[in-house]
Amino acid sequence: MKIVNIISVIFLILLTFHLFGTSVNAVDCPVNPVGGDLVLNSSCSFNGFINGVDSGVDSTNSAVLTIGTGVELIILPNQVIGVGSFKREPGSSIIVRRGGVLKTKTPIWMIDEDSDGYPSTTTQYIQSTPPLNGKRRNVMKSMVNIDSNDTYFCPDGYNPNIICKQCLNGDLVNQPSGTDFFLQCTGGRLCNGSGKCR
Fold first, then answer.
1. What kind and span of H or E run contains 134?
2. 91 and 177, same structural domain?
């Protein structure tokens, strides 16, 4: 009777590992570039629910994700990773947790209404057609610097509707950063000598 119980316990343990897999703890993958290929040299998982590598235009993604020798890429539960294609070096593997998806040949998009290269949110979209105001991720200047006003584009030297100005060293000048939008010295106020409005 004892042997039957021991066999039953071993069977249940093996069944549990088979159904649910072992727990794999991985570090975050290196910060991937906005666009282009990426080589993984150590086992990791991407952060966020949607991520990957992106290159190309329109509905084409030509970015290559290379999984180095002996490296494991872990796709987390319900995570979607987009790539143009992937290359596995000897001894490498891809572990896909329940609900995880690896999508090939599918572009990655972000929302950038004013087309200044800074997205309105960090949300990414992996789909063949662009979302409303979507731009390919590989043309972004950043994936994490959020545009605080995505309706105005104010790089240095360009001020549509005289919207983007800043007070610098006592002068009202062009706002050089695409990530920070504001109109200073409104209502007839002027810049003082310390770079503030008076």
1. strand 134-136
2. no
Cβ contacts of 120 within 8 Å, gap of 6 or more: 111, 112, 113, 133, 146, 147, 150
* Block residue for tokens 């006592």: 170
Output the tens digit of pLDDT for each of the chain's 198 residues: 555 455 554 544 444 444 444 444 568 998 778 999 999 999 999 999 999 999 999 999 999 999 999 999 999 999 999 999 999 999 999 999 999 999 999 999 999 988 888 888 999 999 999 999 999 999 998 888 887 667 766 665 555 555 667 777 767 777 766 555 566 676 667 777 667 777
Q: Which is nearest to 146 in space by CA: 178, 174, 175?
A: 178
Tokens representing residue 23 in the block = 């727990």
Q: Are residues 66 and 145 in the same domain?
A: yes
For 183, the domain range is 152-198
Specify the length of the chain in residues: 198
* CA gap 61, 145 in Å, rounded: 23
